[in-house]
Structures are given as C-alpha cells and as structure tokens.
Write a structure and sequence with these properties.
Blueprint: E1 27-31, H1 38-45, E2 51-58, E3 65-73, H2 76-86, E4 100-103, E5 122-126, H3 133-140, E6 146-153, E7 160-168, H4 171-180, E8 188-189, H5 198-212, E9 249-254, H6 260-267, E10 273-279, E11 287-293, H7 296-306, E12 318-321, H8 328-350, H9 355-360, E13 392-399, H10 405-412, E14 418-424, E15 429-434, H11 437-447, E16 451-452, E17 455-461, H12 468-471, E18 474-475
Antiparallel strand pairs: 1-3, 1-4, 2-3, 5-7, 5-8, 6-7, 9-11, 9-12, 10-11, 13-15, 13-17, 14-15, 14-18, 16-17
Length: about 475
C-alpha cells in the first residue's frame, strides 16, 4: 500500500515521519470518495484547527485516489473535534455517501484501526491524597462535561492512593484536559476497561505509580534490586523473585534516560511489539518506560532476554512484568494454544500431505485449531455468491507463515460480503475479495498488524489486478 499522497499544498510546516504522532491522537483517518480532492478536505477540516498536513493514499501505478486520506492537526483536541463533528457527514452537496472519520492509530503500532471512544474519553491523573471526588471534578469540569470521577483507594484502609480517573462525554474534552491542565497532574489517557475489571485496572495503575514515583516524593526507581541503586548491577536471569505476575506489559527502568525511539529499537527485536512509551520522572534522571506486546509469549521472552541487557554499554536496563490483573494461568494456557496452532499451521504449509490428517483429526474427527487472538472479531457472516462483482481486493501478508485457508476464510468472512479468500502458492501472501468496500475497510481496520493463531497479519488494499485468473496459481 503506497501512502505517498498529497501533501500540504499551502506551504507551511509539514511534519516528518517521526513527528506524525506528536502529539498523540492528532491524526485522523478518513474513508472518502475516490473523487474528493485535497482542496475540499482542507476547506472542510481547517475550521477545527491548524492543519499541518493532508495526504491522500494513491495507487502507486495509476496515481488515482484509493478513497483513504489522513489529516494531521497540530493538537489532539483539534483532531478529536474534527472526528466528532465530521464523522457521518457528506463533504459536498453532490455527495450521497457520508464519510468515515476516525482517530488514526500510531504508526509504531503497525495498525490503521480506528481508536475507540473508550480509549479517548477517560484520563488518568495523579492528585494530592487529600483530594475528594468533588475536588477532582471541580478541577477538571472547566474542560467539558464529566460523566464521572473516581479516586483509587487502598482496599484495606480506604485511604486515597493519590490516583484518579476523569471520564468525559467527548474525546475532545479529554484531550483539552490533558493539553491544558496543570502539569503536576501528569494527565494521560487511561487504558480501556475492556480486558480487565475496574479493580484490576486500578491495581495496575497503583503499581505503576509505585514503581515510577513511590510513596514518598523522592524514591527508589528500582524496586526489584533492593533499596540502593548501587545494587542495580546485580542481575540473575533465573531469579523469578517469588510469585511474580505475568502479563503482556513490561516495566523498563534504566539509570540513563532513553527516548521512545531507543526503547522501541531495543524491544522491537522480539516480534509482537504493540507499543511502548517513555514516562518521565520529575524527581530523577532515571529512564522509565512501559512496553506492551500483542501476546504474552513475546512479553515473557523479552523479559528474560532483555532484563540486564546493557544499553548503552555499561548501563544495564531492568525489565519486570506489570501486574495488569490478568490471570497468569489463562495467559500461559493461551500462549501454549497459540504456539500449538502456529506449529500445526506450519505443518500444513510445509507438508500439504498433512492436511487430510488435520482436517479429520485422525479417528476423533476434530477440526483445525480455533482462532486464538486478542482481537475482538465480529460474528460469522455468510459469504457473497461467487459471481458477485468485486468492489475491493485486499492484499494479506503473513509472518512467519500463512494461516490455513479455512481459518483465513473464517476470519475474513466475519466482516460480511466476502466473495473469496485465497493464498499465493509458495508465498507468504494471499488475497481477499469483497463485494462491498465498507466491509473491506472494516477488515483492514480490525486485522492490520494483529496476531491470530501466532501469525502476524498485514492487511491492506491490493493493487489493480493484472490478468489474475490467467497468471496466478491458487492454493486451496
């Protein structure tokens, strides 16, 4: 997919690749008509704030628009307001089809999925322990309508932990609060609550605060090596430190500050990196970051491979799991299932003679492995008739190997209007044909960059077909 599109034709500042996600959530992803010019986008979206760039995704051969565009604003609140007011609107009087507007996912995540409102309306803040919920509401109501405020308290004593949440009705209001509140609150977007209970999530943030700031103003940043930083050089790869939690999230600490790019380059060595972020400690020069992987297997491998790694030479980084409330037994079971599913898929790909055995499961009649993923998939839908005209084709890249065809069909039919999905013989690629562009775009937004059954997918719009039926040998 060639994303070299139109740039800001009106001159001015154009962000580089490294600053496309600075500040976070300042880019919007548009699904528009292929005939919509950049000038119309600029005219309709400039009222929401300073536009730093507009680029329209074009076919690398024909240079025609693919009906997808990005608009980069100077501030997150501007992008959120544009999304709120323009999603579902028609750009011109002659347009009958409304556009779709989402906050674009960060480029480092490898995904173009839209960011859900749940991820954009709730902020996490650090507050004085004397604050009540009414104090918290009073401080933050100036930025917009608040749905609720909550303060995290010790379950035993009932005392405030100095942490709180504020949930706004609109993403733009939460963005305004983060941009404009006093820096001492260290406001950030809170994690969505779709994977853990409220209490588990609160425990996670409490643990993160204790690691980053401690209970007192000046703190030890290395809780896993004793109370003195001088003990930081003592690492034991086999030390499990008792009943250590296991999760997909890792805490990273270093005596030398690091940038987000440096943190990403270190942990991207292990496949499956979802995102990383650097957190600044106002009381010291230590580096502290949070790393999250798509699956627990990658996190475990990264933890035991990179704990004690010297970067830069002479400085050892510390890596520990962050307790996010997940059940360790369930995570390990899921990891094992993914590994077995990936090995079975690899057997089918490398030795087609094994397909019959896997399909019939020997004498037991069991089926191929079920889909194992953290992605929330829609329910299964019927395929479109084979003779249905193709409205959109998707190009799929598999790493490290293709998924079995029946699993692939099960995944891509869930977005509706699937005509056909097939693999290219001898290649780690495939194609999916849809009878509806919206269904195809939904598949891209949900699946691009995700891991299913241990295989990472890249899903993007395919180039125009060139005598496909005569030249491409399909594998069924």
């Amino acid at each position: 997919m060639d994303e070299a599109g139109s740039s800001a034709s009106g001159g001015g500042f154009r962000p580089g690749v490294d600053s496309l996600d600075e500040p976070p959530n300042s880019r919007i992803f548009l699904v528009i008509s292929k005939y919509t010019p950049e000038s119309v986008l600029r005219e309709r979206f400039s009222p929401f704030g300073e536009i730093q760039d507009i680029w329209v995704v074009r076919d690398k051969h024909t240079k025609e628009s693919k009906g997808i565009a990005f608009v980069k604003f100077a501030r997150s609140s501007q992008a959120c307001r544009a999304m709120e007011e323009m999603h579902g609107q028609c750009l011109g009087p002659n347009d009958s089809k409304p556009i779709k507007v989402f906050i674009a996912q960060s480029r480092s995540s490898g995904s173009h999925r839209d960011v859900e409102d749940e991820e954009l309306t709730r902020i996490f803040v650090m507050i004085p322990k004397s604050y009540t919920e009414e104090d918290l509401r009073e401080k933050f109501k100036v930025y917009g309508d608040i749905e609720y405020c909550s303060i995290i308290k010790n379950k035993v004593t009932g005392e405030s932990k100095g942490l709180g949440y504020v949930r706004y009705l609109k993403p733009s209001q939460a963005a305004q609060a983060i941009e404009n509140c006093d820096r001492s609150f260290r406001a950030i977007l809170a994690e969505p609550k779709n994977k853990a209970s409220e209490s588990s999530e609160q425990d996670y943030y409490s643990n993160m605060r204790q690691e980053a700031l401690g209970h007192e103003p000046r703190v030890n940043m290395f809780p896993f090596v004793g109370e003195q930083p001088s003990e930081f050089t003592s690492f034991d790869k086999n030390d499990n430190r008792g009943q250590e939690a296991i999760s997909k999230r890792l805490s990273v600490v270093s005596r030398v500050p690091f940038t987000e790019e440096q943190l990403f380059s270190i942990f991207d060595i292990v496949p499956g990196l979802e995102y990383c972020e650097v957190q600044r400690d106002p009381y010291s020069n230590y580096g502290h970051g949070v790393v999250q992987y798509f699956n627990v297997a990658s996190a475990i491998y990264a933890k035991y491979k990179l704990h004690g790694f010297q970067y830069p030479p002479g400085n050892r980084i510390g890596v520990s799991f962050i307790d996010d409330g997940s059940n360790a037994t369930d995570l390990l079971r899921k990891m094992a299932t993914q590994m077995v599913a990936a090995q079975l898929a690899s057997m089918v790909w490398n030795n087609p003679s094994q397909q019959q055995f896997l399909q019939f499961g020997g004498s037991s009649g069991t089926q191929l492995p079920q889909i194992q993923t953290d992605v929330v998939l829609p329910s299964c839908k019927k395929k479109a008739p084979p003779e249905t005209p193709v409205k959109e084709r998707l190009f799929i890249v598999f790493n490290p190997h293709p998924l079995p065809l029946d699993v692939l069909e099960d995944i891509f039919c869930r977005f509706g209007n699937l005509i056909e999905v097939y693999l290219v013989s001898g290649k780690n690629v495939g194609y999916a044909k849809y009878a509806d562009r919206i269904s195809a775009n939904d598949a891209i937004a949900t699946l691009h960059g995700k891991i299913l059954n241990g295989v990472r997918l890249k899903v993007m719009l395919a180039d125009s077909p060139r005598e496909e039926s005569n030249k491409r040998q399909r594998t069924y």
